[in-house]
Design brief:
binds fe (ii) ion, 26% helix, globular, 5-stranded parallel sheet, 8-stranded antiparallel sheet, alpha+beta
Length: 343
Protein backbone atom coordinates (compact mmCIF):
# COMPACT_ATOMS: atom_id res chain seq x y z
CA UNK A 1 0.00 0.00 0.00
CA UNK A 2 1.38 3.41 -0.92
CA UNK A 3 1.45 6.28 1.52
CA UNK A 4 -1.46 8.03 -0.11
CA UNK A 5 -3.57 4.87 0.11
CA UNK A 6 -2.78 4.56 3.81
CA UNK A 7 -3.81 8.17 4.30
CA UNK A 8 -7.06 7.47 2.45
CA UNK A 9 -7.71 4.49 4.71
CA UNK A 10 -6.99 6.47 7.86
CA UNK A 11 -9.18 9.30 6.62
CA UNK A 12 -12.07 6.86 6.19
CA UNK A 13 -11.51 5.56 9.73
CA UNK A 14 -11.35 9.08 11.17
CA UNK A 15 -14.62 9.92 9.42
CA UNK A 16 -16.17 6.89 11.13
CA UNK A 17 -14.80 8.31 14.38
CA UNK A 18 -16.71 11.51 13.74
CA UNK A 19 -13.67 13.73 13.23
CA UNK A 20 -14.76 17.07 11.87
CA UNK A 21 -13.31 20.48 11.19
CA UNK A 22 -12.06 22.14 14.34
CA UNK A 23 -11.74 18.92 16.35
CA UNK A 24 -8.40 18.01 17.89
CA UNK A 25 -6.74 14.69 17.09
CA UNK A 26 -3.66 13.45 18.96
CA UNK A 27 -1.58 10.44 17.93
CA UNK A 28 0.51 8.60 20.53
CA UNK A 29 3.60 6.84 19.17
CA UNK A 30 6.88 5.44 20.41
CA UNK A 31 8.70 3.31 17.83
CA UNK A 32 9.74 4.10 14.26
CA UNK A 33 7.06 1.85 12.65
CA UNK A 34 4.43 3.57 14.78
CA UNK A 35 5.65 6.94 13.57
CA UNK A 36 4.83 5.98 9.98
CA UNK A 37 1.23 5.37 11.03
CA UNK A 38 1.34 8.60 13.07
CA UNK A 39 2.44 10.63 10.06
CA UNK A 40 -0.39 9.25 7.94
CA UNK A 41 -3.00 9.72 10.67
CA UNK A 42 -1.89 13.35 11.05
CA UNK A 43 -2.22 13.91 7.32
CA UNK A 44 -5.66 12.29 7.29
CA UNK A 45 -6.83 14.35 10.27
CA UNK A 46 -5.58 17.53 8.65
CA UNK A 47 -7.48 16.70 5.47
CA UNK A 48 -10.65 16.63 7.57
CA UNK A 49 -9.89 20.06 8.99
CA UNK A 50 -8.88 18.85 12.43
CA UNK A 51 -6.05 20.24 14.52
CA UNK A 52 -3.62 17.35 14.76
CA UNK A 53 -0.45 16.61 16.70
CA UNK A 54 1.74 13.69 17.66
CA UNK A 55 2.96 12.78 21.13
CA UNK A 56 6.09 10.72 20.46
CA UNK A 57 7.48 8.96 23.52
CA UNK A 58 11.17 8.14 23.99
CA UNK A 59 11.96 4.73 22.54
CA UNK A 60 13.75 3.67 25.72
CA UNK A 61 10.71 4.29 27.94
CA UNK A 62 9.31 1.23 29.71
CA UNK A 63 7.90 -1.26 27.27
CA UNK A 64 4.29 -2.23 27.82
CA UNK A 65 2.39 -4.64 25.64
CA UNK A 66 0.32 -7.73 26.03
CA UNK A 67 2.83 -9.65 28.12
CA UNK A 68 2.72 -7.08 30.90
CA UNK A 69 -0.64 -5.38 30.76
CA UNK A 70 -1.00 -2.15 32.70
CA UNK A 71 2.64 -1.13 32.36
CA UNK A 72 3.02 1.59 29.76
CA UNK A 73 5.74 3.91 28.46
CA UNK A 74 3.44 6.80 29.36
CA UNK A 75 3.58 6.07 33.11
CA UNK A 76 4.72 9.12 35.04
CA UNK A 77 5.08 11.32 31.94
CA UNK A 78 2.74 14.02 33.21
CA UNK A 79 3.30 16.47 30.34
CA UNK A 80 2.51 13.86 27.71
CA UNK A 81 -0.62 12.72 29.59
CA UNK A 82 -1.87 16.31 29.81
CA UNK A 83 -1.19 16.86 26.10
CA UNK A 84 -3.28 13.80 25.24
CA UNK A 85 -6.15 14.92 27.48
CA UNK A 86 -6.47 18.04 25.34
CA UNK A 87 -7.50 15.97 22.32
CA UNK A 88 -11.06 15.11 21.30
CA UNK A 89 -9.76 11.88 19.77
CA UNK A 90 -6.52 10.11 20.57
CA UNK A 91 -5.08 7.43 18.31
CA UNK A 92 -3.16 4.98 20.50
CA UNK A 93 -0.40 3.28 18.51
CA UNK A 94 1.46 2.20 21.68
CA UNK A 95 -1.04 0.10 23.72
CA UNK A 96 -2.27 1.79 26.88
CA UNK A 97 -5.01 -0.73 27.58
CA UNK A 98 -5.52 -1.63 31.24
CA UNK A 99 -3.47 1.34 32.43
CA UNK A 100 -4.37 4.13 34.84
CA UNK A 101 -3.06 6.59 32.25
CA UNK A 102 -5.63 5.44 29.70
CA UNK A 103 -8.41 5.74 32.26
CA UNK A 104 -7.36 9.27 33.15
CA UNK A 105 -7.32 10.32 29.49
CA UNK A 106 -10.76 8.77 28.88
CA UNK A 107 -12.16 10.40 32.01
CA UNK A 108 -11.18 13.78 30.58
CA UNK A 109 -13.62 13.12 27.70
CA UNK A 110 -11.06 12.13 25.10
CA UNK A 111 -12.21 9.22 22.99
CA UNK A 112 -9.49 6.69 22.20
CA UNK A 113 -8.91 4.43 19.22
CA UNK A 114 -6.29 1.71 19.57
CA UNK A 115 -4.63 0.79 16.28
CA UNK A 116 -1.81 -1.76 16.14
CA UNK A 117 -2.51 -4.17 13.31
CA UNK A 118 -0.76 -4.32 9.91
CA UNK A 119 -2.10 -1.99 7.25
CA UNK A 120 -3.57 -4.73 5.05
CA UNK A 121 -5.50 -6.14 8.03
CA UNK A 122 -6.80 -2.66 8.86
CA UNK A 123 -7.90 -2.19 5.27
CA UNK A 124 -9.66 -5.55 5.04
CA UNK A 125 -11.39 -5.02 8.38
CA UNK A 126 -12.37 -1.35 8.10
CA UNK A 127 -15.46 -1.18 10.33
CA UNK A 128 -19.00 -0.37 9.22
CA UNK A 129 -22.06 1.16 10.87
CA UNK A 130 -23.81 -2.14 10.18
CA UNK A 131 -21.33 -3.98 12.40
CA UNK A 132 -21.78 -1.35 15.10
CA UNK A 133 -25.56 -1.76 15.02
CA UNK A 134 -25.32 -5.51 15.46
CA UNK A 135 -22.81 -5.22 18.32
CA UNK A 136 -24.95 -2.58 20.04
CA UNK A 137 -28.08 -4.70 19.58
CA UNK A 138 -26.26 -7.58 21.26
CA UNK A 139 -25.02 -5.30 24.06
CA UNK A 140 -28.56 -4.18 24.80
CA UNK A 141 -29.69 -7.78 25.31
CA UNK A 142 -26.52 -8.70 27.22
CA UNK A 143 -26.86 -5.75 29.60
CA UNK A 144 -30.34 -6.90 30.67
CA UNK A 145 -29.31 -10.52 31.34
CA UNK A 146 -28.75 -11.90 34.82
CA UNK A 147 -26.75 -14.96 33.84
CA UNK A 148 -24.55 -16.25 31.04
CA UNK A 149 -23.83 -19.91 30.52
CA UNK A 150 -21.75 -21.54 27.83
CA UNK A 151 -20.98 -25.10 26.85
CA UNK A 152 -19.05 -27.00 24.22
CA UNK A 153 -18.73 -30.57 23.03
CA UNK A 154 -15.62 -31.14 25.14
CA UNK A 155 -17.35 -30.77 28.51
CA UNK A 156 -17.44 -27.03 29.08
CA UNK A 157 -20.38 -26.00 31.26
CA UNK A 158 -19.84 -22.76 33.12
CA UNK A 159 -22.16 -20.08 34.46
CA UNK A 160 -21.48 -16.40 35.05
CA UNK A 161 -23.64 -14.37 37.42
CA UNK A 162 -24.05 -10.93 35.82
CA UNK A 163 -25.08 -7.45 36.88
CA UNK A 164 -22.09 -5.97 38.66
CA UNK A 165 -20.15 -4.80 35.61
CA UNK A 166 -21.13 -3.01 32.41
CA UNK A 167 -21.23 -4.50 28.93
CA UNK A 168 -18.45 -3.14 26.73
CA UNK A 169 -18.63 -2.99 22.95
CA UNK A 170 -15.86 -3.06 20.38
CA UNK A 171 -16.84 -2.43 16.77
CA UNK A 172 -13.73 -0.72 15.45
CA UNK A 173 -14.35 3.02 15.76
CA UNK A 174 -15.50 5.54 18.33
CA UNK A 175 -17.45 8.76 17.99
CA UNK A 176 -18.62 9.18 21.62
CA UNK A 177 -16.75 11.32 24.16
CA UNK A 178 -14.62 9.27 26.54
CA UNK A 179 -15.27 6.00 24.74
CA UNK A 180 -12.47 3.56 23.83
CA UNK A 181 -12.42 1.21 20.85
CA UNK A 182 -10.01 -0.90 18.84
CA UNK A 183 -9.65 -1.11 15.07
CA UNK A 184 -10.33 -3.82 14.00
CA UNK A 185 -12.76 -5.65 16.24
CA UNK A 186 -16.41 -6.68 16.35
CA UNK A 187 -17.42 -8.25 19.63
CA UNK A 188 -18.75 -7.44 23.08
CA UNK A 189 -18.06 -8.54 26.62
CA UNK A 190 -18.88 -8.10 30.25
CA UNK A 191 -17.79 -9.85 33.43
CA UNK A 192 -19.32 -11.84 36.23
CA UNK A 193 -19.99 -10.52 39.68
CA UNK A 194 -16.92 -10.91 41.85
CA UNK A 195 -16.81 -14.62 42.81
CA UNK A 196 -19.69 -15.25 40.38
CA UNK A 197 -18.29 -17.88 38.00
CA UNK A 198 -18.84 -21.58 38.60
CA UNK A 199 -18.22 -24.63 36.46
CA UNK A 200 -15.80 -26.13 34.04
CA UNK A 201 -14.18 -24.75 30.90
CA UNK A 202 -12.54 -27.20 28.52
CA UNK A 203 -10.46 -25.37 25.96
CA UNK A 204 -10.63 -27.55 22.87
CA UNK A 205 -8.18 -28.37 20.09
CA UNK A 206 -8.31 -25.49 17.61
CA UNK A 207 -9.21 -22.87 20.19
CA UNK A 208 -6.71 -20.00 20.29
CA UNK A 209 -4.71 -19.01 23.37
CA UNK A 210 -3.40 -15.44 23.49
CA UNK A 211 -0.74 -14.32 24.36
CA UNK A 212 0.76 -17.66 23.28
CA UNK A 213 -0.57 -16.91 19.79
CA UNK A 214 -1.17 -20.57 19.07
CA UNK A 215 -3.94 -23.07 18.53
CA UNK A 216 -4.47 -25.56 21.33
CA UNK A 217 -3.74 -29.16 20.30
CA UNK A 218 -4.86 -30.99 23.43
CA UNK A 219 -7.82 -30.13 25.69
CA UNK A 220 -7.18 -27.90 28.72
CA UNK A 221 -9.65 -28.47 31.53
CA UNK A 222 -10.16 -25.59 33.97
CA UNK A 223 -12.14 -26.07 37.16
CA UNK A 224 -13.65 -22.77 38.27
CA UNK A 225 -15.06 -22.13 41.73
CA UNK A 226 -16.26 -18.78 43.05
CA UNK A 227 -14.68 -16.94 40.13
CA UNK A 228 -11.25 -18.55 40.43
CA UNK A 229 -9.44 -21.30 38.59
CA UNK A 230 -8.80 -24.01 41.15
CA UNK A 231 -7.40 -26.70 38.87
CA UNK A 232 -5.78 -26.92 35.44
CA UNK A 233 -5.44 -30.36 33.90
CA UNK A 234 -4.73 -31.93 30.54
CA UNK A 235 -1.71 -32.49 28.35
CA UNK A 236 1.13 -30.28 27.24
CA UNK A 237 -1.12 -27.29 26.48
CA UNK A 238 -2.46 -27.40 30.04
CA UNK A 239 1.10 -27.64 31.38
CA UNK A 240 2.09 -24.56 29.35
CA UNK A 241 -0.83 -22.54 30.65
CA UNK A 242 -0.30 -23.63 34.26
CA UNK A 243 3.43 -22.95 34.18
CA UNK A 244 2.96 -19.52 32.60
CA UNK A 245 0.41 -18.57 35.26
CA UNK A 246 2.61 -19.80 38.10
CA UNK A 247 5.39 -17.57 36.79
CA UNK A 248 3.48 -14.45 37.83
CA UNK A 249 3.44 -15.60 41.46
CA UNK A 250 0.12 -13.80 41.80
CA UNK A 251 -3.11 -15.30 43.15
CA UNK A 252 -5.06 -12.78 41.09
CA UNK A 253 -3.78 -14.47 37.91
CA UNK A 254 -6.35 -17.21 38.57
CA UNK A 255 -9.34 -14.86 38.46
CA UNK A 256 -11.84 -15.00 35.61
CA UNK A 257 -11.96 -11.93 33.38
CA UNK A 258 -14.26 -10.77 30.60
CA UNK A 259 -16.70 -13.01 28.72
CA UNK A 260 -18.47 -12.36 25.44
CA UNK A 261 -18.80 -13.39 21.81
CA UNK A 262 -17.57 -12.37 18.35
CA UNK A 263 -19.76 -10.91 15.61
CA UNK A 264 -17.36 -9.99 12.81
CA UNK A 265 -17.97 -12.31 9.88
CA UNK A 266 -15.00 -10.84 8.00
CA UNK A 267 -12.55 -12.06 10.66
CA UNK A 268 -11.14 -15.53 10.13
CA UNK A 269 -10.50 -18.15 12.79
CA UNK A 270 -7.65 -19.43 10.62
CA UNK A 271 -5.91 -16.05 10.29
CA UNK A 272 -3.30 -16.84 12.94
CA UNK A 273 -2.21 -20.00 11.10
CA UNK A 274 -0.70 -18.00 8.26
CA UNK A 275 -0.12 -14.55 9.73
CA UNK A 276 1.70 -14.02 13.03
CA UNK A 277 1.81 -10.22 12.70
CA UNK A 278 -0.28 -7.90 14.84
CA UNK A 279 -1.86 -8.75 18.18
CA UNK A 280 -4.60 -11.10 17.07
CA UNK A 281 -7.72 -8.99 16.82
CA UNK A 282 -8.97 -11.13 13.98
CA UNK A 283 -8.76 -14.23 16.17
CA UNK A 284 -10.62 -12.49 18.98
CA UNK A 285 -13.46 -11.11 16.87
CA UNK A 286 -14.29 -13.93 14.46
CA UNK A 287 -17.97 -14.59 14.08
CA UNK A 288 -19.54 -16.92 16.62
CA UNK A 289 -16.50 -17.42 18.84
CA UNK A 290 -16.98 -17.31 22.60
CA UNK A 291 -14.17 -15.15 23.94
CA UNK A 292 -13.28 -16.53 27.36
CA UNK A 293 -10.58 -14.79 29.38
CA UNK A 294 -8.71 -14.89 32.66
CA UNK A 295 -6.97 -12.35 34.85
CA UNK A 296 -7.55 -8.61 35.18
CA UNK A 297 -10.96 -6.97 35.19
CA UNK A 298 -9.99 -3.32 35.68
CA UNK A 299 -11.20 -2.64 32.16
CA UNK A 300 -14.71 -3.35 33.47
CA UNK A 301 -14.20 -1.39 36.67
CA UNK A 302 -13.10 -4.31 38.84
CA UNK A 303 -10.20 -4.58 41.25
CA UNK A 304 -8.18 -7.44 39.73
CA UNK A 305 -5.02 -5.77 38.43
CA UNK A 306 -2.90 -8.84 37.68
CA UNK A 307 -0.56 -8.60 34.71
CA UNK A 308 -1.41 -12.20 33.73
CA UNK A 309 -4.12 -12.10 31.07
CA UNK A 310 -5.33 -14.79 28.69
CA UNK A 311 -7.78 -14.16 25.85
CA UNK A 312 -9.11 -17.48 24.58
CA UNK A 313 -11.46 -17.45 21.56
CA UNK A 314 -13.31 -20.77 21.62
CA UNK A 315 -15.04 -22.42 18.69
CA UNK A 316 -18.29 -24.34 18.37
CA UNK A 317 -19.62 -23.21 21.73
CA UNK A 318 -23.25 -22.72 22.72
CA UNK A 319 -23.91 -19.58 24.76
CA UNK A 320 -27.07 -18.69 26.65
CA UNK A 321 -28.22 -15.47 28.30
CA UNK A 322 -30.85 -16.25 30.94
CA UNK A 323 -31.27 -19.66 29.30
CA UNK A 324 -32.02 -18.12 25.87
CA UNK A 325 -29.59 -19.35 23.20
CA UNK A 326 -27.52 -16.60 21.56
CA UNK A 327 -24.85 -18.76 19.93
CA UNK A 328 -25.45 -22.43 19.09
CA UNK A 329 -22.38 -24.51 18.25
CA UNK A 330 -20.51 -21.47 16.99
CA UNK A 331 -23.35 -19.92 15.01
CA UNK A 332 -25.12 -16.76 16.15
CA UNK A 333 -28.84 -17.48 16.21
CA UNK A 334 -30.33 -14.07 17.04
CA UNK A 335 -31.38 -12.53 13.74
CA UNK A 336 -30.45 -8.93 14.56
CA UNK A 337 -26.90 -9.97 15.49
CA UNK A 338 -26.35 -11.74 12.17
CA UNK A 339 -24.83 -10.02 9.12
CA UNK A 340 -27.42 -8.44 6.90
CA UNK A 341 -27.58 -9.75 3.35
CA UNK A 342 -25.84 -7.32 1.03
CA UNK A 343 -24.48 -5.21 3.89
FE1 LIG B 1 -8.78 -9.51 27.11
Amino acid sequence: MTISQAVDLFEAELRMCGVTEGETVAVLSQTEPQRIYARDFLTAATRLGADAYEVALPSQATAGGLDAVGVTPLSGNRSAIEALKHADLMIDLVFLLFSVEQQEIQDSGTRILLCLEPIDVLRRLLPTPELRERVEFAADIYSRAESLRFTNGFGTDVTYSLGQYPVMTEYGYTDEAGRWDHWPSGFLFSGARDDGVEGRVVIAPGDIVYPFNRYVESPIELTIEAGRITDISGGVDADLMADYMRGFDDEKAYGISHIGWGLNERCRWSSLAADARGIGMEGRAFYGNVLFSTGPNQELGGSNDTACHFDIPMRNCTLYLDDEPIVIEGDVVVEDMRPRAGA
